[in-house]
């Protein structure tokens, strides 16, 4: 049975698919009152991810985060209903590269908004654990929202066995080792995005980035150090340093 056109939850009508999360299909939908929203549908065997995301995200209220509002069931599959984040995923939005030179103010605003979102999460004792372009939706002016909380959880949460979380290109060394993750691991992902913005490409272990005189380069290097204890772990301080180095007043 086609999903488009189905009504789920409290009168939410599915309209069309708009993307995929780490473990889900995301639909643009319209609530009973006409307001646009998103419905994130998980395969039945991944219901634990839906439960986890709802448990950790349903009471988050911040302008740079989507808000998970309710649970639903779609064709016997668990689903979450959330506010709609507008814009394009980060890499698609910044098709002209390096983004720091093509659209410096907009790209740095995106990072500022990402740091705002992470600062809020970290203050609440949570880490996102999957900072990557697909989880950052960016509008034309650079305004951004962080989405997809199905890997999120308490900082330094432990599991019965090492669990490697995140996406390889943006994964901190400790995440790749399956260690418990803290704020510095989320900020490592932001550092990778900053390096991409400066150089126009993701890092290559066999070919280090060329030297650059961009004033943001030292911040990128500090955020992506291999040793977690040597990296910043405070999103608000990183935000302030980013703006100081960039000479911007946001």
Automatic annotation (TrEMBL):
SMART domains listed in its UniProt record: S_TKc
Keywords annotated in UniProt: ATP-binding, Kinase, Nucleotide-binding, Serine/threonine-protein kinase, Transferase
UniProt xrefs under SUPFAM superfamilies: Protein kinase-like (PK-like) (SSF56112)
GO MF terms, alphabetically ordered: ATP binding; protein serine/threonine kinase activity
Chain positions recorded as ATP binding sites: 40
Domain of life: Bacteria
Keyword Nucleotide-binding applies: yes
Every Protein kinase domain range: 12-250
Keyword Transferase appears in the UniProt entry: yes
InterPro entries linked to this entry: Kinase-like_dom_sf, Prot_kinase_dom, Protein_kinase_ATP_BS, Ser/Thr_kinase_AS
Pfam family, one: Pkinase
Protein name: Serine/threonine protein kinase
